[in-house]
């Protein structure tokens, strides 16, 4: 199961390589010696207050950071050695080659390659797991991730605890206990929170309340409005769509 697909589909990943000396708060770094040995990709959702001395290229990352639960659940830093992954090493090499050259489309190529590096860093963070309850722990769990990804991919389905337990190949009681321990909440509470996160994105994109409610599995616009108001402190109709060309908050 693709544990990142729903996030890539719903939240816009924007990565922009920073020119030397350009102001900004980079969140992605390619660091290491000039010969490319012992290099590493470092990703910090909160950015860097100070760049390491061996930093070679920095990029700003916007993955709808404030609204994206994946970003808020990330560890403070993900550092991935290049020599541990041939695919990562090859991508980093292509990235450095583009940065050193001046061919047409250079800026776009750098930004796209930086996006791939971000996704690879996220993969590494998921694979590494975490002792802290939350989304990354759930995505890293060998069985539980199947239920969590099912929620992410099919939010409009009328899930039951038994359905989700079956997805994880667990008994109902084991699933409930494991989910609360690993995620920090109940399956139905997590499902409701994910539905509201998606619905808010759809509303910001200009979708009508009824359509957003239906797409996210709420039984009615009224039920959706009540849940949305409890979560965000205002009715869905009070949310102003993002202007064209502006990132959704």
Supply database-style keywords:
five-stranded antiparallel sheet, 10% strand, single chain, 249 residues, alpha+beta, 11 helices, disordered C terminus
Q: How many strand units? A: 5
What is the H/E order?
HEEEEHEHHHHHHHHH
Strand order of the largest sheet: 1-4-2-3-5
- Structural class by secondary-structure content: alpha+beta
Assign a percent range to the helix content: 40-55%
Largest sheet: 5 strands, antiparallel
What value does the Rg take, in angstroms?
20 Å
Mind explaining what this structure looks like?
With 249 residues, the protein is an alpha+beta fold. It is built from eleven helices and five strands, in the order H-E-E-E-E-H-E-H-H-H-H-H-H-H-H-H. Helix content is 49%, strand content 10%. Helix 9 (187-204) packs antiparallel against helix 10. The two termini are 28 Å apart. The model is unreliable at 244-249 (pLDDT under 50).
Gist of the model:
By secondary structure, this protein is an alpha+beta fold. The protein has helices at about 5-10, 70-75, 85-100, 105-130, 135-140, 145-155, 160-165, 170-185, 185-205, 210-215, 220-230, and strands at about 15, 30, 40-45, 55-60, 80.
Q: What's the topology here?
A:
Elements: H1 5-10, E1 14-17, E2 28-31, E3 40-43, E4 55-62, H2 69-73, E5 78-81, H3 86-100, H4 106-128, H5 135-140, H6 144-153, H7 161-167, H8 172-183, H9 187-204, H10 209-215, H11 221-232
Antiparallel strand pairs: 1-4, 2-3, 2-4, 3-5
Helix pairs in contact: 3-4, 6-7, 7-8, 9-10
């Amino acid at each position: 199961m693709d544990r990142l697909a729903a996030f890539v589909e719903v939240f816009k990943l924007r990565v922009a390589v920073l020119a030397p000396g350009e102001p900004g708060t980079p969140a992605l770094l390619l660091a290491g010696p000039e010969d490319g040995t012992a290099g590493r990709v470092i990703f910090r959702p909160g950015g860097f207050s100070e760049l390491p001395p061996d930093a070679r290229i920095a990029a700003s990352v916007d993955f709808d950071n404030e609204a994206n639960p994946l970003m808020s659940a990330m560890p403070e830093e993900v550092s991935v050695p290049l020599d541990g992954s041939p695919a990562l090493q090859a991508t980093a090499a292509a990235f450095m080659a583009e940065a050193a050259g001046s061919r047409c489309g250079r800026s776009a190529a750098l930004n796209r390659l930086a996006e791939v590096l971000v996704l690879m860093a996220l993969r590494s963070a998921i694979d590494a797991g975490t002792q802290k309850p939350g989304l990354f722990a759930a995505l890293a769990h060998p069985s539980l991730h199947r239920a969590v990804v099912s929620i992410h991919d099919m939010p409009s389905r009328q899930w039951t605890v038994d359905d989700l337990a079956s997805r994880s190949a667990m008994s109902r009681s084991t699933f409930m206990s494991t989910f609360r321990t690993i995620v920090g909440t109940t399956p139905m509470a997590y499902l409701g929170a994910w539905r509201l996160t998606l619905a808010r994105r759809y509303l910001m994109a200009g979708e009508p309340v009824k359509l957003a409610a239906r797409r996210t599995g709420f039984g009615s616009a009224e039920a959706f409005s009540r849940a949305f108001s409890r979560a965000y402190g205002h009715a869905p109709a009070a949310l102003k769509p993002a202007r064209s060309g502006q990132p959704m908050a």
